[in-house]
Amino acid sequence: MKFEYTEPQDELEKMFGGFYCINAYGKIGVGDCDRFLHFLENASPPPRCPVYINSDGGSVADAIRMGMLIRGAWFSTNVGSYILSKKEQGDAITPRTMLPGNCMSAATLMYLGGRLRYLDKEAKFGVHQFSYSKPSVSDASKSQLLSAEIARYLSVMEIDARFLELSAATPSSDIKLLDHQELRDLGVVTDGETKPIWTTESRNNMLYVRGERDGIYGHHKVMLSYSKSAGFLFWAVIEAQGREDELTSFGLVEIVINGEDYRVDISERCAREVFGIYVNIISQITPDEAKLIAYSDSFGVHVRFSQDAELHLGIAAVSTESGADQLITLFETVS
């Protein structure tokens, strides 16, 4: 497999951000994971850099390991190639062209490493059984180990188990093409936002239910918490993306509930702290406010300059559909 890196072409593009891109194309060979790691160390692309994949497959082990590198670097993935076009007179920035491509067989595992995963309407995404070209008795044992490794990898990447079932049901001599909607249903394609994951956890004498989501505006968490010493707490963790000053200084902070149907002003009672790339917002809330959150369809936090400001920072309301039982159980248990 070959790798190419493109960065902003001039100071104007740097000023506007974005304009970073990795193209990964060709057959995935044994040892390509090491080559990809060396490539990333030399190129030093920033987090959120998109990786465009155009490959019919190859080494499963290397594809999985490259997927892990992509996830660890906070990259997104897409299918195809994204190339520079010739800059004409009058162009403020260098044009880019998106070329459709294929993501087949083992390359689909590399694709799954993206924190956000996109699929162009003209791209082709196909799966089938993973097998050895010259099967032997020892390969049967290796295949079982490989299947287990793939299953673990899909679990880490939070992909529906049906994805592996579809692959296993398609002979290695054939290929099953999956469309955008099928891949959305399986959690393979996320587009600009992942489905929230809700968990119940405890730490430092605090019990909390946390919803976690990744999107084009960052990696975010919202929590309903309880401790005997502090009572109910609202807690948000916001990937700042360079907006730490605004998130900690803007005057209005509101919990938004059920989309934006209800707003709870916590401006005067919340604490805001920067931790690494994140801004934490923590506020005590009343039992009635906690109940409103626990029984909500969604909740998040908006940070605005003032009441009159139309634009906000923070976290758009996160769906509680998959965490409703946990939120309600927490509230009813401790209230």
Question: How would you sum up this structure, described in words?
Answer:
The protein has 335 residues and is of the alpha+beta class. It has 2 domains: 2-185, Alpha-Beta Complex (2-enoyl-CoA Hydratase, Chain A, domain 1); 197-334, Invasion associated locus B (IalB) protein (Immunoglobulin-like). 28% of the residues lie in helices and 33% in strands. It is built from 10 helices and 19 strands. It has helices spanning 11-16, 32-43, 60-72, 107-111, 137-156, 162-168, 180-185, 244-249, 287-294, 324-334, and strands at 2-6, 21-25, 50-54, 76-79, 81-84, 96-99, 102-104, 124-127, 176-177, 197-203, 206-215, 218-227, 231-239, 252-257, 262-265, 270-275, 278-284, 298-304, 313-319. Strands 10-11-12-13-17-16 form a 6-stranded antiparallel beta sheet. A 4-stranded mixed beta sheet has the order 1-2-3-4. The mean pLDDT is 92.
Beta content: 25-35%
> What is the straight-line distance between the termini?
57 Å
Topology pattern, helix = H, strand = E: EHEHEHEEEEHEHHEHEEEEHEEEEHEEH
The total domain count is: 2
- Count of distinct strands: 19
Biggest sheet: strands side by side, in what order? 10-11-12-13-17-16
Question: Any idea what the radius of gyration is?
Answer: 23 Å
Instruction: Bin the helical content.
Output: 25-40%
* Largest sheet descriptor: 6 strands, antiparallel
CATH superfamily of the largest domain: 2-enoyl-CoA Hydratase, Chain A, domain 1
CATH topology of the largest domain: 2-enoyl-CoA Hydratase, Chain A, domain 1
Which overall shape is indicated by the principal axes computed on the Cα atoms?
Answer: globular
Average predicted local confidence, pLDDT: 92
Q: Which architecture of the largest domain per CATH? A: Alpha-Beta Complex
| Low-confidence region ranges | none
In CATH's first tier, which class of the largest domain applies? Alpha Beta
Estimated structural class: alpha+beta
Helix run count: 10
